[in-house]
Amino acid sequence: MAHEILKKLPEDVIIYILLSLPVKSLMRFKCIFKTWYILIRSSTFINVHLNCSKTAKEEFIILKRSLQEDPFQHKTTLSFLFGDDLKPVSPDLDVPYLASTFANNYDQFIGPCHGLIALVNMVNTILFNPATRNYRLLPPCPSDVPQGFRCSVDGVGFGFDSMANDYKVVRISKVYNDPPYRDPYSREQKVEVYDMSTDFWRELENIDQDMPRIYWAPCSMVFYKSACYWLAIGSKDKMIILYFDMGTEIFNTINMPDTCNSYNGPHYGLVVLRDSITMLRYPNPNPEYDPAQDLMQIWIMKEYGLYDSWMKIYTIRPLLIESPLLIWKDYVMLCESREGSLISYDLKLDKIQEFNLQGCSTSLRAICYTESMIQIPCESKDSAQVQFF
Q: Which residues cross the membrane (predicted)?
């Protein structure tokens, strides 16, 4: 009966209905008709579905954390959380290829970009669509380091190049003497880019060796409007924002507010809020610093690239946190506590809530995610194939 009704509906009505459905339903409906299967898998449908207006109710939080399985083994786990009480909407996922003998405190959790996220550790990069549960292990970056030297990865970015219609991963690293005290000034910065379309890593030439140093923090990198942004340390130890345009593959910088550019003392984070680059300044979590003496500040850049448009939108009482993770719904700030658990702070109500979600200290990361049907590219027959959790 239902099939007969569906057959009588005009094609444009069926397409309109399908575009309004969540990804989980679309995955099931592919099996009803062959024509629906072809339609739902088409790049046109996927791109239109991606750009359809989404409501805040469709957003959920993906929490990444490192959990200790035994004294010599740690795993990386993803939790999928929804609603103000951050209840799990599906079972946790243990991420393959990211298990380690030590806590994964320096894993990067980047995205989303068109519904795709990247999980990166010291060796592996995994591209993952949480909605379809598809993932792919990207080829390792070639380690072309001379004997007697070591390579240290300082920053990683992932995003989309709209000019080339291609996804890219960018890796910023330093090559230095091993051990480094032999000549601490003998260091070379290198930048490598992975193109999904070619399944190949390449090193960029003519990199400025005076380029600012990447500042590592749990939320110190974002992808925003075709560029990757990192917090960085410039000349005279001043904090700045370094960004890399995915299309032109050129680096540039943005100055931070004068009252928030000191490298010594406070810590910093970087998020996107109200569709603008936003900087978080928070007390240093090290025990020798007294957080009661330092307020937390949130600054938003109202006009992109204009230094004079920085505006402080929140000044927050001292919070005993390890680091902020993201700002959700414009007013809920998720943070990692000093004990390694997830907490939220309501910027409007000045209210703290703690959740029963813990991980190894400094290992928590979080992103706000909206579902997408975007498929993970796999152009080369020799590349690792897309797999399913």
A: none
